[in-house]
Write a structure and sequence with these properties.
mainly alpha; three-stranded antiparallel beta sheet; globular; Glyco_hydro_37; Glyco_hydro_37_CS; coiled coil; alpha,alpha-trehalase activity; hydrolase
């Protein structure tokens, strides 16, 4: 039955996407990909019930309810809710538990044995983090046709950019078939939905995440026959590029549309955006509270919150007009250095795929696009006064004063000149290197993508980027400090965490909308890859 479902699902999704438009979309998202049937999104599917559950904080974590599976059709649930909610003694939590199945956390059954090495612990965890191809589900999960790895903790679905760093560990574990399964799932989503969502949940269909798919293809091409891999995924790569560049041809002068920005000198760069201007279903209470406290137009705040989630850095001082206050969030005013380095890589990868497909003219177009983007990065995202890469603010028309580890992306993707790489290495060493590795930013504001936290992807990108330019001593120092911190926390707690306090290594990292999670996919992948050196 599952096999037949996946044979027809691509055609059904394409049909739905072409015929349905989310009624919550506004003019600002006209450039975006349309949703599937809006009733699949929990915020539309459950309406007043969802709002009541989230605003009354029935569960400590807002993600719990939207991950529940209904026991009966949602129309019947809503009918029962409307009939019962006004009655004396009505208990909202009891109603939810009666009508929904709570999400499971399989890794909670895993018993750590700290006599194992960290690597042995990680390799024992893969089977707990692995999910087989999905059956048809009636909750918020978007079913995928192949096996995949989830990060762990509250995150029981595949996540886009997490997956690249998970692949690093799977490669070391020899799980090549699983790596290809994960790429096939992403290609499937691109071909059926039009882009790779933040995660395979219907409430993530408003946004993507940092576009690492091209680098995933490059990773697999380094393992299997190169030409076969690039030709297999070329169509998906082309469609992802179309998603990020949609509206570019319509920009005849300085301005922005969707995820594309045209600068005064004609250069084209990209920003993070969102397909909606509504609260996130999984963080409904947090979003309406932020909007109310901001004193701004609520839809503007929701757009910028969702765009920050697309960045993966949710949340960070990078996106705030006041680095210490989320109510000043302005993500769509920022041209991010990391996103544009990633798209440079996508353009370079497409050039390679087109050459294998004997499309020489098309390959040259991508070479030129990548060259133009590199020029634009040098012009707008290099801060000569601070001698490093930084984001660009479209409103102030200046480089952002907020420095972050986004500066390492141009090194990893070979956008930087030797002189720029040397300058970035000095900034990393003098300002960002801490006892446990690299701190994400220099701002301490209780946001999880700021000080004192360090995150696995950035340690890895920094190490590999520095090695590319010959700064091996600093790369080794970062790697050593990070691995030792991972080992110490594992021996103390029996867990691999999603992020760490790199300043005070006796403490667990914090900040953000939820407690620090364990598992943890990308931490495991980065550890195994760095530990092989």
């Amino acid at each position: 039955m599952v096999t037949n479902y996946f044979k027809i699902l691509p055609f059904l999704l394409v049909l739905i996407l072409s015929s349905c438009k989310n009624e919550s979309q506004t003019d600002a998202s006209d450039q975006a990909v349309n949703f599937p049937d809006k009733n699949l999104n929990p915020i539309d599917r459950y309406g007043d019930l969802l709002m009541a559950v989230q605003t009354n904080r029935i569960f400590p974590d807002g993600k719990t309810f939207v991950d529940c599976e209904p026991k009966i059709p949602s129309e019947e649930i809503l009918k029962n809710y409307n009939a019962q909610k006004g009655k004396e003694g009505f208990n909202l939590k009891s109603f939810v538990l009666e009508h929904f199945t709570l999400p499971e956390t399989p890794t909670s059954n895993f018993e750590s044995d700290t006599t194992r090495s960290t690597s042995e612990h990680i390799n024992a965890l893969w089977s707990y983090l692995k999910r087989d191809a999905d059956a048809v589900e009636n909750g918020s999960r978007i079913a995928l046709p192949n096996a995949y790895i989830v990060p762990g903790g509250r995150f029981q679905e595949v996540y886009y950019w997490d997956s690249y760093f998970i692949l690093l560990g799977l490669k070391e574990a020899g799980e090549i078939e699983l790596i290809e399964n994960i790429l096939d799932n992403f290609a499937y989503q691109i071909n059926t939905i039009g882009f790779i969502p933040n995660g395979n949940r219907t409430y993530y269909l408003s946004r993507s995440q940092p576009p690492f798919f091209a680098e995933m293809v490059n990773l697999l091409a380094g393992i299997k026959d190169e030409k076969t891999v690039y030709l297999k995924y070329q169509e998906a790569l082309e469609k992802e590029y179309e998603f990020w560049m949609k509206g570019a041809n319509a920009l005849t002068e300085k301005g922005a549309t969707g995820r594309v920005v045209k600068l005064a000198d004609g250069h084209m760069l990209n920003r993070y955006f969102s397909n909606t201007q509504t609260p996130r279903a999984e963080s409904y209470l947090e979003d309406i509270t932020t909007a109310e406290e901001s004193g701004r137009e609520a839809s503007e705040v929701y757009l910028n919150i969702s765009a920050a989630c697309e960045s993966g850095w949710d949340f960070s001082s990078r996106w705030f007009a006041d680095p210490n206050d989320i109510v000043t969030i302005q993500t769509t005013n920022i041209i991010p250095v990391d996103l544009n380095a990633l798209l440079y890589n996508l353009e370079e990868t497409l050039a390679k795929a087109r050459r294998f497909n004997e499309n020489i003219e098309g390959a040259e177009q991508m070479v030129k696009a990548a060259s133009d983007r590199k020029d634009a990065i040098d012009t707008y995202l290099w801060d000569a006064s601070q001698n490093t890469y930084a984001d660009y603010n479209l409103v102030s028309e200046m480089v952002s004063p907020t420095l972050s580890l986004a500066m390492v992306y141009p090194l990893y993707f070979k956008v930087a000149s030797p002189q720029q790489a040397e300058a970035v290495s000095r900034t990393l060493k003098t300002q960002f290197l801490k006892p446990g590795g690299l701190v994400t930013s220099l701002v301490k504001n209780k946001q999880q993508w700021d000080s004192p936290n360090g995150w696995p992807p950035h340690q890895w990108l920094a190490v590999r980027g520095l090695q590319t330019y010959g700064f091996n001593d600093l790369a080794e120092e970062i790697s050593t400090r990070w691995l030792h911190l991972n080992d110490r926390v594992y021996k103390r707690t029996g867990k691999m965490l999603e992020k760490y306090n790199v300043i005070d290594t006796t403490l667990v990292a914090g900040g953000g909308e939820y407690p620090t999670q364990d598992g943890f996919g990308w931490t495991n992948g980065v550890y195994l890859d760095l530990n092989k050196d």
